[in-house]
Each structure stands twice: as structure tokens, then as C-alpha cells.
Amino acid sequence: MELKDLTPMVKIEIVIPARHAPEVTDLIRSLGARGYTAVSGVAGFGHHGERGGRMLFNDHDALTMLITVVPEDRADAIASAMHPVLTRMSGVMFVSETAVSRAEYFV
């Protein structure tokens, strides 16, 4: 398989407090995402200061990164719906072009 054989898609990565992950996964699935990957215990530094990875006693306060890949026509709806969500909680969303080898998994 060559790069020219891949199907263009949009990758959306959302980093949020773990306690909000169920709400966000429900939202993105309701807007056409066929699936997602959740990475728990995300650490980093940003607007809200330093955030550690997995908490020793309370995973609920850790950060989770949700990653979904969708066709471009579904990406606008997800990005638009996430804007008000991210105004009421800490978090960030990254949107980028990507390409996939099994397009039928995403449509």
C-alpha cells in the first residue's frame, strides 16, 4: 500500500478531565464518530498549569485524551459541539488532517 491509496480523514484529539470523558464520548458518538481511543493518565503543562499523569488514589481527577477519526463532513459538527463544552470545563481540542488505510472503519 502506498500513501496515495490512503483515504483522507480528520483526526480530533480532546484532552479533558477524566470525569468528563463519558459526556464527551457520548457527544462525539452522537455526532457520527464510529469509535474513539481513550488514553488515560495524560500529563502536561498548559493554561491551567502543570497536570500530573495518573493520580495514585483518584483516577477521576486525571486527564484523559480522546482520539477519534472521522470523515471531514462529520468533523465540523464535532468541533462545533465541543466549543461550548470546552468553555465550561478545562480542556483542549486539536484537529488535524490524517489518512487511514481502512476507511470502512470510520464511515
Descriptive report:
There is one protein chain. This protein has 107 residues and is an alpha+beta fold. It has a single domain, classed as Alpha-Beta Plaits (2-Layer Sandwich), CATH 3.30.70. 24% of the residues lie in helices and 37% in strands. It is built from two helices and six strands, in the order βαββββαβ. It has helices at 21-30, 72-87; strands at residues 7-17, 37-42, 44-46, 49-51, 63-70, 92-100. The strands form two sheets. It has a four-stranded antiparallel β-sheet with strand order 2-5-1-6, covered by helices on one side. Strands 3-4 form a two-stranded antiparallel ribbon. The longest helix has 16 residues, at 72-87.
List its salient traits.
two-stranded antiparallel ribbon; 37% strand; Alpha-Beta Plaits; 6 strands; four-stranded antiparallel sheet; alpha+beta; 107 residues
- Discrete helix count: 2
Report the count of strand segments: 6
Mean pLDDT, as a whole number? 87
| Order of secondary-structure elements | EHEEEEHE
- The parts where pLDDT drops under 50 for at least 5 residues are none
Q: Cα-atom Rg, whole angstroms?
A: 15 Å
Please summarize the sheet with the most strands: 4 strands, antiparallel
Helix and strand composition category: alpha+beta
What is the structure about, briefly put?
This protein has helices at 21-30, 72-87; strands spanning 7-17, 37-42, 44-46, 49-51, 63-70, 92-100. The chain is α+β, with helices and mostly antiparallel strands and 107 residues long.
